[in-house]
Structures are given as C-alpha cells and as structure tokens.
Amino acid sequence: MVVMRGGMSATHLLRDPRVLMNLLAHERRQKEQSEDRACPQSDTTLEMRKELAYWILQVCELQHCEEGVFPLAMSYIQICLSLFPVPEDSMRLLGCTCLLLASKMKNEVPLTIATLEAYTGNTVLCHQIREWEPFILKQMRWDLAVIVPHDFLDYMLDRVIFTSDMRSSLRKNAGAYLTLCSADCNLYKFAPSLITVVCIAKAMWDFGLIMPPADDLFACLSSLAETTTDQILACKTEIEGALSRYALEDHTYVNLVF
User: Fold this and answer.
1) Which of 23, 60, 118, 189 could form a disulfide with 65 if both were Cys (CB 3.0 to 4.6 A apart)?
2) Which domains does the chain have, with CATH numbers?
3) How high is the pLDDT of residue 40?
4) pLDDT tens digits for 65-119?
5) Dihedral of CA 138/139/143/146: which sign?
6) How many whole angstroms separate alpha carbon 162 and alpha carbon 152?
7) Per-residue DSSP letters for 188-212?
C-alpha cells in the first residue's frame, strides 16, 4: 500500500468522495473556460491532428512515459488550437512543446528537448521548442493542471470493481481505451469523466461482467459522473466509432462495439 505524506494511504484517497467531487468541480470550470475559446484553424485538418497524435503516442511508448503524459499533451494541443491559429508547418513544433510540458507535469524524469528534436528527424530544432515553451505557457496563462479522462479512472473503478485481481485487468483495458480516445479530437466535446465511464463500461463488457442493455450500470455510472444516461449513450456511440476507425489502421483491438 502506498502511503502519502501525513500518513494518508492511496486507498483512503480513492475512497474519499471529496476527491471525486473536486475533480468534477475542476472539470466544470475547465468546460466553462473552453466555451470562451473558439479560434478557427484554417491550416490544420483532422488528418493532420490524427497523424500528430499517433506520432506523440509513439514517442511516449518508446520513451516509456507515464500513462498520463500522452492524454495531457493532447489536451494541451487541443487548448492551444482553440487559443491561437497554428500554421500547418508548425503543428509538429506545437506537438513537441506540448509533449515537453506534459512530461514535466507527469514524468519523474521529463523528456529532454534534444530527445524531441531527434524524434522529429531534426525537422523541429531545440531552439524552436525553447522559444515556444514560454509562448504556450503565456497563452495558457500557466494553467497546466488540466483534467483528462485518466484522472478519473482509479476513483471510478474503485466504486464498481469487485476484486483486486479483476480491478487490475479492467484498469488495463479501460486505460488502453482512454489512450485511444485521447488520440481522437472528435471526442474532446465530451467531458473527461463521461469518456471515462464509457471506457470502464467497455472494459466490463470485454470481461463479460455486464450484458446489454446494462441499465443498472449506466445509472450507476451516470451518477458517478454527474451526467445522464442519454449523454452516456451518445458518448458511447462516438467512442465506438473512434475505436472502429483505429481498428481499420491497427487490428490489435477487436470486438469494439458494445
């Protein structure tokens, strides 16, 4: 058992309802802030964003980054694209800088600028990343504490899982789905908590723990995420589409519709 400073255990934090309440409150504030941002992007396409996401995911895997680095970097990118126009030839630079910031937030040992330069084949240079780092920090008003779906995973799993062995397997599957969802910019219209409960439901389907229509589970999850069953079903449909699109390119994931 991990013990936090002051004698508080990680298990105690998971079961403290105030933690989940605070995450949801932070999520609501984050949504309100995002509604005030609407910068049109004339030079970037969904395909470009997808290619950038897969490149960042590869770098994170090769560098053995903590699981929170990739979704946080993608959230930073999404925020930046809503704040200022990014030319097509600057997308990789934006990705490098956001990945650097995310690794500083989540990794015990952050990625180096030289490492990121190398992964671009020197098409993005160290001095460019150094120049963009303070620029992005200023644009984001130094607010890097962004809520992502992974932040909710352990707290919500703790309320629906029966055994520790099953919890570990479900967490692995749900975490994998959340990572794939982070790569799809179409899903950023949904709240992180909503995406999390749908991915948990998907993982439970995988293990045969629930069967359609699973109304009781959706009622439980909608209560956890302070949302509605209709919103869960709408998010579920979008996530199924995202996972299916991913399966067309990488056949590692099967049985995607639930």
Assistant:
1) 60
2) 40-139 (1.10.472.10), 150-249 (1.10.472.10)
3) 66
4) 999 999 999 999 999 998 888 888 899 999 999 999 999 999 999 999 999 999 9
5) negative
6) 18
7) GGS-HHHHHHHHHHHHHHHTTS--T
